[in-house]
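Intended use. Records like the one below are meant for learning the mapping from a protein sequence to its folded structure. Do not use them to infer anything beyond what is encoded.
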Amino acid sequence: MSDTRRRVKVYTLNEDRQWDDRGTGHVSSTFVERLKGISLLVRAESDGSLLLESKISPNTAYQKQQDTLIVWSEAENYDLALSFQEKAGCDEIWEKICQVQGKDPALEITQDPIDESEEERLEELPETSHLVELPPCELSRLEEMADLVTSVLSSPIRREKLALALMSEGYIKKLLGLFQVCEDLDNREGLHHLYEIVRGVLFLNKAALFEVMFSDDCIMDVVGCLEYDPALVQPKRHREFLTKTAKFKEVIPITDSELRQKIHQTYRVQYIQDIILPTPSVFEENFLSTLTSFIFFNKVEIVSMLQEDEKFLTEVFAQLTDEATEASKRRELVNFFKEFCAFSQTLQPQNRDAFFKTLANLGILPALEIVMGMDDLQVRAAATDIFSYLVEFSPSMVREFVMQEPQQTDDDVLLINVVIKQMICDSDPELGGAVQLMGLLRTLIDPENMLAPINKTEKTEFLSFFYKYCMHVLTAPLLANTAHEKDSKDNFQTAQLLALILELLTFCVEHHTYHIKTYIMNKDLLRRVLVLMNSKHTFLALCALRFMRRIIGLKDEYYNRYIIKGNLFEPVINALLDNGTRYNLLNSAIIELFEFIKVEDVKSLIAHIVDNFYKALESIEYVQTFKGLKGRYEQEKDRQTQRLNRYRRDARSMDEDEEMWFNDDEDDEEGESVEKSRTEDDFADSYGKYMEAKKGRIPNEPSKGCVLTKTPYLFRKGPCAANGSNGANSNGKAAAVPPASPAASPTVNNNSSASSAKTTALPATPLVKTGLVGLVDYPDDEDEDEEDEEEEEQSPRKRPRLGS
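Structure written out for the chain above:
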């Protein structure tokens, strides 16, 4: 069998009996060695990964629906569907399946799976019993027929055989004819039997039967049979609702008769599934999977047919945006679009993209801007639902539209501001609409979905736009309610609204960094938010605390300085103390805030808290948080003290350090013993005069020439060294060093020593009377100058030496 590839969409039925899209790919039928048989393979068109690998079992029941669908069940609760782009591809794969199973491709259904018990039972049956024999379609045999239908539901084989029998003999229409007779005679017993029969036939779960039962000629009689539930004292009036109460409204006349019939059929079948049939039990869940599929693919067909009718959609939009359109007519148009968008969710992704792009090109967003500002609650609710579909489909598309608006309109009528105002003015006590709108706003301002490579500047541009034109509208209720350092309106609905606003602001703190930081500082927003810590509604106080907790969680010193400068811990600590000994969520949340500061060792905040509030907090001993803060504070103080002491060492320790440093140099000079004694004497003489000059003993005597050797370390200490280090090279030359003080008048003595061939005589380094450079001179060294002088006079060799 050769491979065939066709473009398909793979669907699976989820636990909620809804079809989940698993991806688009190309299907082929080929022999798979591992599965030991011909299998259906679907590989993703994007990356070639395997979306589906399903062996065509001889006993698996496959159904072909609507020319482009193949549906089957692989396990008890695992239904699959392949939706083909082309009918030719569906026909070819269907022929392969039928070829493997030995079936006629002209059929649209194959057998159900046979388990071992069914096989054994089938083998025990005589050959003549392989076909289900239906009783004659007569009033007196209705009970027998009801028992037969009920008995086969537990057996896949018998369900299949009964379905074939019902289709082959045109039995359904005969039964529905008996229904009219029973209803005319008011034969309640017969009507109850017909309820059981029709319900059982629906549970056979066969698409071919549904095509007959849901046709225009039969569907109302099917609904009529389902009205006479034996468990009810009085029958329901479903037909009356469908024919008189439920009205089909054509906002624009639909001329396509096939489309009209499909819309009517889908509505009625959906009504049967959702309203008439009881909620299926665990054992009945799979009985109606084909009914769910029937509705699903009907919706796909309706949307596709409407979308292809360009004149229809153009006319709808023209009336929706026309100012002369009556309010009632506009309401119907909006409700139509809401239903239209809901149906579009059944489309494959590429078709859904095309659908929403079509709506965008026709002007759906400007139209929504108009209708969302209307006073009609139903219209606003429908417009909100449409807006949610658009935001879910493409936040970038909505953002692009709103960023172009300031050039054409005032701030008050910007689409996002219209959405914010609708959220703020929600009249529902539970704020159901406001919660939905807040979720949409969050999606629009979420940087995570602004990372499209096509427009890398989207994030910066949109956030700048939002904070310039929209943020003041969002925070207006919060700032108004906290203007006088107290929550002016503390009723439940206002508290809920403020909680929603705070939730959005907290999201901004986490994701917007620069923009929200600037806004908080400019508006002193955190101070206003913390006013809500006094609210009688604990959930609102917790929202305010969460806002501050997110700010502190960033560990941004800019925020920390702002909190310290404004003393913004005070309302939080007051709330903790006012809460007393009550062990509740507010208490735990506040303690967690301080625990975070302690664990993360936020030094500036720890110092501020301990310095200003520790006396009020030290009595809290049921947690160790505040004692831990105090401990951190003391540790930091000790570290600071040690750091200061490290830089205030006495001169003797300095001398010892220098001696160790120069001694380290001796190891590097072992190969120059001839120069060492001479250098040592010269250094001692020069150093002695240097120290006398330092102590003021020879204030006016110019320094003698300094003998320099190749040793580089000498030039890092003392006035001679400073000169050498700036310009010493292999020839022993040195560059002149400018005096350390402009006021100094250095004199130079050009005497030189030249007793060694390896020693080069250089001009002496100028000696400056004041501001000496070289040795580190700390202010507190002067106290010990006298001791140093005595030691120097007794033994100048005790000072650091060049060599030994």
